[in-house]
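Dear support,

I submitted the protein below through the web form. The confirmation email said the job was done, but the results page showed an empty box. After a refresh the structure appeared. I'm attaching both so you can tell me whether what I see now is the final result or a partial one.
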Amino acid sequence: MAQEPLRRVLVTGGAGYIGSHIVQTLLLQRRYKVISIDNHSNSFPTALSRVSQIARDALPDDATDQDKQSTVIDSYTADLRKKEDVEFIFKQYGKGGIWGVIHVAALKSVGDSSDFPLEYYSTNVAGTLQLIQVMDAYECRRFVFSSSATVYGTPPVVPIPETTRLAADSVYGRTKVMCETILQDLCYAEPEKWRVISLRYFNPAGAYPSGLIGEDPRGRPGNLLPLLAHMAIGRVKDTTLRVFGNDYPTRDGTCVRDYIHVMDLASGHLLALDALGPQSTVFDNCPTRARFKGYNLGKGKGQSVLEIVEAMRKATGYDYKTEIVGRRLGDVPDLTADPSLAEKELGFKAPHDLDTMCRDLWNWQTKNPQGFGED
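What the results page shows now:
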C-alpha cells in the first residue's frame, strides 16, 4: 500500500524550546515535512540539527525514502515582521504547497512586556497579522495558534474553563488576546476557508528524555524552572531566588501555575494539527459559524513557586535559598487549567508529573551545562 504523501507544515519559532519539541514530535510521526522559521532571538540553530538526529536515529530498518525525507527540516532564518521574508518562504512551495501552520514564535515575558510594550505588540500582534496575510495569499488556511493562559487574566473560576472571558492583566497577555480576536474574526468572515485552533497553555517544563534538546534561553532565564536549573549548574551566580510575593490567596501565599511537560504540550499541538484535517469533527459544535476553537492544555493541577523550588531541590540536590520580595506587575494568583475539553475533543492527555519534569530538565542541563554551546 502506497504511503500518503508528506504534508508540509510550517512551524514558526521552530528552533525555540517549545518549537523544537513540537518539530521533534512531528518528525517522529513520519507524516509531515517540517518547515521552520526562526529569527533566533531566543533560540539556537543547533536545536533543529539535534531534532533531525533524533528522527533519523528512530527510523526503522525498512525506512522508505519518504520516511528519510521526513527527518530533514527546511529551516529558514527569517523575521515574521518582515513580510518579504515570509513571502519568500511561501513562494518556495507555491499556492497550496504548505498544508498548515503551527505559530509558536512570540516574545513571552510578562515582566518585560510591561517595560517594552511596543516591541511586544510589534512582534506578537503585527507579526501574526503579517503571517496570516501571507498564508491567505498562498491558500494555506489551517492554523494552530500557540496562545497562553494569560489571556484569562485573573480568572473568576479555577480551574479555568475555556468559557472564561478573555481579560488579560499584562501586555503579553493582551497581545495573545488580540491575536485570538483577529483569528476568530477571520474565521467568522471566511468560515468556508479558515480552520483555527488556539491552544491556551500554562508553564511548559522538562525536556526530551534523552537530554539531547531542552530549554536554553539566551541571557538570564525569565522563567522559574530554567532559572533554577541555571542556578544549580552555576550559569546564574545568584545564591538566592527572589520570590515575587507571598501574600496571594494560595496555599502557601506564592503564585500557583499549571506546569505541563513540554512533551505533553508538543503532543497537544500535534493533536490540534490533526484536528484541522478534513475528517475532523471538532468544529461541528462551534457556537457561531466561525471554525475557531480554543482549548486549554494543562495538568489541571497547579504548583506554587515554593513547591517548584522544593521539587528542583529534590531533583538537583542543590540547596536553594529564597527571599520574598514585592509582587510583580501583571502576575495573578492562580492559573490552573481545566483541560477536560481538550481531553474530550482532541484526546489530549498530560501524564508526566512534576518530578518527571524536573528530572528531565536536570538531565538536559547536566548533559548540556552550557546549553547548545553557541554564542
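Response: this is the final, complete result; the empty box was a page-load delay. The radius of gyration is 20 Å.
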